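# nightly structure sweep
# worker-07 picked up a monomer target from the shared queue
# config: single-sequence mode, recycle default, output format = structure tokens
# input follows
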Amino acid sequence: MWLTSMLGIRDGFTFSAGGIDYLLNFNIAEKPLLLLLIGVIYAVIYFVVFYGLIKAFNLKTPGREDDTEEAADVSAPETGTDKYEQMAKLFITDIGGKENITAIDNCATRLRLNVKDMTQVKDAALKKHGAKGVMKLNKTNLQIIVGTEVEFVADAMKRLDGIPAGSAPAEEPASPVEQKGLAPLTDKDFVVPVEGTIIPITEVEDAVFSQKMMGDGFAIVPSKGSVVSPVDGEIINIFPTKHAIGIRSVQGYEILIHVGLDTVQLNGEGFNLMVEEGQQVSKGTKLLTFDLDFIAGKASSTVTPVIFTDLPKLNVKKLEQVKQGESGIISID
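# output follows
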């Protein structure tokens, strides 16, 4: 400001002080070309200073992640190990080894880990080995987005790390389906699972959902505490704490319904299941009920994401108050 004033430059700008303002006011400004010259000089100064700092301190700006980290080939698991054990071994190595892990837990879609030294965690290697995303919440709290198969990876990591794991199901769940080759899902094939108000998935206050790391979808701010099946299909996954259910539609789409945010910490309290894994369900079949007031008081949010896992784009037709069982909400061509 003092420099332009000293040089006798006079120009008018709105809050953004952008190029459009500059062009519109060019004919009425005083010494506008000199102002442009000063802008170029400052741009060079900013570039040199920040480039030097980024290089000097090796700051991980976008595009400068450690992409050169070497990663083993997960397409060829070691003999005698299943894919979850192989992924667990690679994840443990990428995190800095067993000695860097102090706690292993998981929710419906992600590993929740405590580590001693966050600088040993290799984000790029984790992503190459199957992680859909990596979140470093603070110096010790690490979350790795895996998907609906996270429970099996977590159990394998616990076994390898010497922590007793829970019993795994007898059958391995199906891998996420790809949209290509599946039958269309019309607006009549899908009904609203929870009564409430639909909001864009990008407004969910959890980066795993809002950044579509698990796939596209929408969320519902519930007004009643019950969940019904949105499709005809099969229950393929029920999380032990009852707050999340995975369903595969007859067309082959996998859908995750996650009641509330951070509800894994409730350990099933406030939830009442009415189905079991492997059960065939129809649209409108009641899956579970939940105490809406209890969850509102104990969890960070009651917002309920409905995610089509590994589906990059979903056509959501309504963002409004909806009734449970109402159709015409979404479609997949």
